[in-house]
Write a structure and sequence with these properties.
With 86 residues, this protein is α+β, with helices and mostly antiparallel strands. It has one domain (2-80). Helices cover 36% and strands 26% of the residues. The chain has helices spanning 35-38, 46-55, 63-72, 74-80; strands at residues 2-10, 13-19, 24-26, 40-42. A hairpin with a 2-residue loop joins strand 1 (2-10) and strand 2 (13-19). The longest helix is centred in the middle third of the chain and has 10 residues, at 46-55. The model has no long low-confidence stretch (mean pLDDT 85).
Amino acid sequence: MVPISDGQKIEGIPSVRWLSPRMCFFGGDSKARFHSKLFVFVDFGPLANGFLSACGTKREPSVEEVAQILLADPRKFYELAEGRDK
């Protein structure tokens, strides 16, 4: 399980959710793109990233994973894309 901060605090303590390594992707250039609105990107440094890679974390989402997000909630996908042209 990978700890992900959701940016919220409960009684002053940062709230954390736990995701499977297969539901996370490594940070980098992808973080600045549209995908960062749809997927969780992590970077725990070279050693931890090597371990996560062996557990199923990938560099970027596949076309199939993007399509699954689109089909799961088309309206949200459209809003996050900021319209048809993007």
